[in-house]
Specification:
Elements (H helix, E strand, L loop, with lengths): L18 H4 L2 E6 L5 H4 L17 E6 L4 E11 L2 E11 L13 E5 L1 H4 L1 E5 L4 E7 L2 H15 L3
Amino acid sequence: MSDDKKRMPVIMPQRMRLREYEIQDWVANIEYGFSLEDILVPSFWAHVAAQMKPYDHIEARADDGSWVAHLLVTGCDRTWAKVAVDRVIKLTSKDIAETQASQHEVKWRGPQHKYSVIRVADREPIKAGFANAEEAAQWAREHERVVGVP
């Protein structure tokens, strides 16, 4: 094409759509014990991959509150989804519930489990669903008193 007949750059209407029609935004509450590396394995998403499509966004939240990862779906099929990490926000210990009892600790474990009382000896959650850390700490103190833990 000669310089005098150069096309003006324009986008055609069929190439532009509302974001809501093109991508989905997901929130995944990652179960306690899984790492960021675990969620990058395509088979990790096997049970939900059929709902996804390329370019979807996933906000993956560690149940223990230690990190939040923003992911982009780069490819998927019925039983797998490949994701790329956009960014990861590492949270400090001040962002995570602090230990409230000597033999037990209180941790935020995500929206499903909420604040939970964790036995320090074996890291086993013994009671979950508390609305706030103070309520969980009170339960842990009472539990220690009842079962005779010093």
